[in-house]
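re: ur question from yesterday

yeah so i grabbed the chain u mentioned. its 221 aa long if i counted rite. heres the sequnce exactly as i have it in my notes:
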Amino acid sequence: MMILFRTLLFAVAVLLPAAAEKQAVLTMEMYYGDTKIADVRDQLQIGADHYEINSTAAAVGLAKILHGDSSFFSSGEVDSTHGLLMTVYQGNRGRRDPQQAVRMGDQLQLQRGEETRTEQLSEPLFDYLSAIYRSYALGTVAIGKLKFTNGWRLRDYDYVIEGEETVMTGMGEIATVVILRDSERGARRIWLAPSLDYLPVRLYVDEKGHEFTMIVQSVEK
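ran it thru and got these structure tokens back, copy pasting raw so excuse formatting
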């Protein structure tokens, strides 16, 4: 309750978005290996100055029993150089403790469950959602080194272009540019579709040997 209350107050006071200049709704299927584990829905609103992204993952089958549903939220500033600069991020991953990051100037407040701490931060900051959709905001492939938070920790990641690939989706075959983020924790790949203004149509996550894939089924713009 404390997390939600504080976030709502901050959103009402600071983050009321302007009318959306770009908006999209993506539906995706998530797989663990070859087994479908969730239906994912991402909703984006990107205005001249502010953005909001809501992502929900409705678990299916055994994943519903073991892990439950997940939801993620990101909001912040729209920047012509960096794309989407995070101000508020929330991550609720099933039965894990919720995590939240709130940036105010050079201070970043982090919370996991009832634990809290503050970090000093001067550079641009990104999260799971803003990093995925910054290319869509910019209208071009966005790469480079980013300061990244999951709501509790800060890490540095480097996004590079790995190549081009045509992938099969629920919308048929789509030509993409593949972005790679590699680290000791595992690889992340994002397949961006130029024909859809660089929206992601496939995502791959390796979490210490646990492999997850998301494949787009529909896009509404």
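noticed a couple things. Helices lie at 2-14, 62-66, 128-138. also The longest helix spans residues 2-14.
anyway ttyl
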